[in-house]
Amino acid sequence: MDVKTSVIIPELCGQLIQQFINGSDFVLAMNEDNHVFSWGLNHRGQCARDVTPEGVYLKPQLISQLNDKNIAYICCGVWHSLALTTDGKAYGWGNNYSGQIGSEWQRIVTKLGHNSHENHYKSLFIELSAIGSGGFGTVYKVKHRIDEHIYAVKRVQIK
């Protein structure tokens, strides 16, 4: 859908936006309080939102995970985003197929900051139902967020 004339973006009115940062087909906006908003195509998690089958967010939304980070600089690649804080911490999210966000084991990162195995599991799968339990954990019927195939996954709890 092409927009032939300029339109107001109501979600950003009054937010005191200072800059827009463009990815391939998504946009980030940062306001004077260094809060970051995202919208557009999100099929690789580049908007720091849940990856959905539709993969598109048409309205800007605050990336609340960055609120307390005091972002100084932000940039976008084709399908990933990077942010640098005033105290020198770097955050990355989105497409990591070539390691561009600095996480060796995770291909798509939808949450920022510390990438735990729990976050990785939740970024990949939607739990549909528990199938059974046994030694160390529970087996779940899950749907992969990207390829939408159904799998059986055992979540092991080690205490």
From TrEMBL:
The keyword Nucleotide-binding belongs to this UniProt entry's keyword annotation: yes
Binding site for ATP: K154
Listed Gene3D superfamilies: Regulator of chromosome condensation 1/beta-lactamase-inhibitor protein II
Cross-referenced SUPFAM superfamilies: Protein kinase-like (PK-like) (SSF56112), RCC1/BLIP-II (SSF50985)
Pfam families referenced in this protein's UniProt entry, alphabetically: RCC1
Keywords, sorted A to Z: ATP-binding, Nucleotide-binding
Residue stretches making up the Protein kinase domain: 125-159
GO molecular function (one): protein kinase activity
Alphabetical list of InterPro entries matching this protein: Kinase-like_dom_sf (IPR011009), Prot_kinase_dom (IPR000719), Protein_kinase_ATP_BS (IPR017441), Ran_GTPase-activating (IPR051553), RCC1/BLIP-II (IPR009091), Reg_chr_condens (IPR000408)
PROSITE patterns named in the record: PROTEIN_KINASE_ATP (PS00107), PROTEIN_KINASE_DOM (PS50011), RCC1_2 (PS00626), RCC1_3 (PS50012)
Signal peptide: none
The RCC repeat ranges on this chain: 34-87
Entry keyword ATP-binding: yes
Name listed for the protein in its UniProt record: Protein kinase domain-containing protein
Organism: Oppiella nova
